[in-house]
Specification:
Blueprint (H helix, E strand, L loop, with lengths): L10 E4 L9 E4 L2 E2 L1 H8 L3 H4 L17 E2 L3 E2 L2 E2 L1 H10 L5 H9 L10 H6 L4 H10 L1 H6 L4 H8 L1
Antiparallel strand pairs: 1-2, 3-4, 5-6
Helix pairs in contact: 3-6
Length: 150
């Protein structure tokens, strides 16, 4: 398992069939449940109960965890605040996309760049709540993916 600060980056695009909105972009690497639990020093079954950990869940696969949310064997505080606040309103894919997408309200920085430059998490949280509708519009419903695969 690579250190989350590693320069290796994987970018995965989930196409949105609507085309009236942008595609979702996910930035990796991505870890399995076992890798993430090991990194955090917790049991895999305890990981699923954590509300501060960003997970990407699929219909047919075990969930994955974007490594960008970790630093120093912990979940980054700034990312945890966003995840805990939005997780009941947006799926993990939309939150992960929002964290890495440049945002005009944050000076054209992505939220992660905003945090890395030492800016306030509360400002980003206000922007996140204002962006919920647009973030949700980029998510491809699983029923459309299943229909396309069928």
């Amino acid at each position: 398992m690579a250190d989350p600060a590693s320069p290796t980056v994987e970018v995965h695009t989930l196409p949105n069939q609507d085309r009236t909105v942008s595609d979702i972009v996910l930035v990796g690497p991505f870890w399995t449940r076992a890798e993430t639990a090991e990194y955090l020093g917790i049991a895999p079954e305890d990981l699923q109960a954590r509300r501060d950990v960003l997970r990407l869940e699929g219909r047919w696969l075990e969930e994955t965890y974007p490594a960008l949310q970790f630093a120093g064997r912990e979940v980054r505080y700034d990312v945890a605040v966003i995840v805990e606040s939005l997780r009941d309103e947006l799926p993990g894919t939309a939150i992960a996309d929002w964290l890495t997408r440049p945002n005009q309200a944050l000076g054209a920085l992505s939220p992660l760049q905003w945090f890395d430059s030492g800016q306030d998490v509360n400002t980003a949280l206000q922007v996140a709540h204002a962006d919920i509708e647009s973030a949700a519009s980029r998510v491809v419903p699983l029923s459309r993916i299943a229909a396309a695969a069928g």
